[in-house]
From TrEMBL:
Highest taxon, organism lineage: Bacteria
A Pfam family the protein falls into: Zn_ribbon_RlmA
GO BP annotations listed: methylation
Domain 23S rRNA (guanine(745)-N(1))-methyltransferase N-terminal span(s) in chain numbering: 17-51
Record-given protein name: RNA methyltransferase
Keywords: Methyltransferase, Transferase
GO molecular function terms listed in the Swiss-Prot or TrEMBL record: methyltransferase activity
Sequence ranges assigned to domain Methyltransferase in this UniProt record: 96-180
Native organism: Gordonia phosphorivorans
Amino acid sequence: MTDVASDIGQRGVQALRCPVCSAALDIVEQGLRCAHAHRFDRARQGYVALLSGRGNRHRSDTATMVAARRRLLGAGLFDPMARALARRIPPEAAVIVDAGAGTGHYLAAALDAAPAAVGIGLDLSKYCARAVARAHPRAIAVVADLWEPVPVADAVADAVLSVFAPRNVPETARMLAPGGSWLLVTPNPGHLHRVRADLGMLEIGADKLERLHEELTAGGLHVRHTESVTAQAPLDAGLLADLAGMGPAGFHRTDDELRHAARVLTADRATIDVGIDVTVTVAAATPA
């Protein structure tokens, strides 16, 4: 391991905690271990699974879903959103956490905006973790359950990203450093409105943003800035199928069903309008 890689690894591990007992973790051969001898091996694909062992009932992205997401992100449709997120990252940030990191696409953009930062990409899917491990030289990939105590230390994150991902308000508030920012991306009502129904994608509640703000306020956080990011791009049938297949519709419809629906759509609706709400919140007080 090079000195640079060693420094990144050490700083990243210092920001992590044991998912079983919350003790600090140390680097050992082939993985991590806490003072209470809980050990977590590093997978050959470059990630470490920090799970409590209690199990969970949540679905995680499959290899097929991750491949679809990588193709769609590679086509550039969501680049305006990635750039908007990156603009909100403090250049002096030391630790950036992506909670529900997916492929690591947005974490990589955030790390490019903060040259000295270490990124921690958390996702329940091992296939996402494999992608995060390759997404950026300063990214550390961790398999973790966001509905459990998150294996990140108190008050260490200068920024937390949640991009179309589960929101654990108490745990995020705990992770945030004083003055840190939580960058939340949620779909506006117009997000993918021309294709959602035909591709079997979930509808968006009209009061979604209002409920989000109430949730944040109840967690001791407040909204500092809100902006909308819109983008349009022509998509062929393959990318339209990927658009649905990378999300919950991928659990409920077969690949053939999605591709058939996409071919029908392509005839007159090859362009979609993406509306994104980027909400920045700050910790109201230093975590205890």
